[in-house]
């Protein structure tokens, strides 16, 4: 959380002679600031020199405080770059029934999403092959950002046949849930048929939407979901921020 003028809340000069080491007081203040989101996950902390000046101490004292935060897993120090607030790591299971919300709820994380696009499009060769429809056929397109505890972890684009699910994009806009939108069409269950996983650097628009540097790799899954008769119902491309998400493939997993 930042002040309205864009600067961080002021830190307090430690009190000497109060029975608590100065470096510990500094570590406690920074820990509170991180916990209160005055410094966001992934954000760089001020330099050792800047912190030393603000706290009125030498750099050795600041360095000891930062080492404590590093050991506690609150920050990570990159040689030559500085100290950064550590981001959460999500174990995202790829199973027979992979559901975004359930994956996060199982880890006591709060899921949320932000709709970017709900529109109509046409199937290119890849989409047509995955959905088993002709090239050029009408498709529903839903694109969204996925959050875990307020952090952006994934950018997903979903494609569905407009012939089978007419108006699905609009239905999703109303219900804000892929599963609920499917149910509104009478599809009460579906499963993952196949997932392909690759690692690559983000495209400029992906980096902008996920708010990451262009040098941070993505884990990209291309998945096909099918109904219980084995007919394709959805093709999804999901881009996960690789240092926020671990993809866990569990044979026989059924995430209800």
From TrEMBL:
The keyword DNA-binding applies. NCBIfam families: C_P_lyase_phnF. Pfam families: GntR, UTRA. SUPFAM superfamilies: Chorismate lyase-like (SSF64288), Winged helix' DNA-binding domain (SSF46785). This is Putative transcriptional regulator PhnF. InterPro entries: Bact_HTH_transcr_reg (IPR050679), Chorismate_lyase_/UTRA_dom_sf (IPR028978), CP_lyase_PhnF (IPR012702), Tscrpt_reg_HTH_GntR (IPR000524), UTRA (IPR011663), WH-like_DNA-bd_sf (IPR036388), WH_DNA-bd_sf (IPR036390). Keywords: DNA-binding, Transcription, Transcription regulation. GO terms for molecular function: DNA binding; DNA-binding transcription factor activity. Residues 20-88 form the HTH gntR-type domain. The gene is phnF. Signal peptide: none annotated. GO terms for biological process: negative regulation of DNA-templated transcription.
């Amino acid at each position: 959380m930042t002040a309205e003028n864009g600067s961080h809340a002021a830190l307090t000069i430690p009190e000497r002679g109060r029975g608590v080491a100065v470096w510990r007081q500094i570590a406690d203040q920074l820990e509170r600031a991180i916990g209160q989101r005055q410094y966001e996950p992934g954000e760089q902390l001020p330099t050792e020199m800047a912190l030393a000046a603000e706290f009125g101490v030498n750099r050795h004292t600041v360095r000891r405080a930062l080492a404590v935060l590093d050991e506690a897993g609150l920050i990570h120090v990159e040689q030559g770059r500085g100290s950064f607030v550590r981001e959460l790591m999500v174990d995202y299971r790829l199973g027979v029934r992979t559901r975004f919300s359930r994956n996060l709820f199982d880890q006591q994380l709060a899921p949320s999403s932000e709709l970017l696009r709900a529109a109509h499009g046409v199937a290119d060769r890849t989409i047509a092959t995955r959905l088993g429809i002709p090239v050029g056929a009408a498709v529903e397109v839903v694109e969204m950002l996925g959050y875990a505890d307020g952090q952006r972890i994934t950018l997903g684009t979903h494609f569905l046949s407009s012939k089978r699910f007419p108006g699905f994009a609009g239905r999703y806009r109303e219900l804000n849930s892929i599963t609920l939108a499917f149910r509104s069409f009478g599809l009460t269950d579906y499963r993952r048929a196949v997932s392909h996983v690759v690692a690559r650097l983000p495209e400029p628009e992906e980096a902008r939407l996920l708010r990451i540097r262009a040098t941070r790799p993505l884990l990209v899954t291309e998945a096909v979901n099918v109904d219980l008769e084995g007919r394709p119902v959805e093709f999804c491309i999901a881009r996960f921020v690789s240092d926020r998400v671990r993809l866990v493939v569990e044979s026989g997993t059924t995430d209800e």
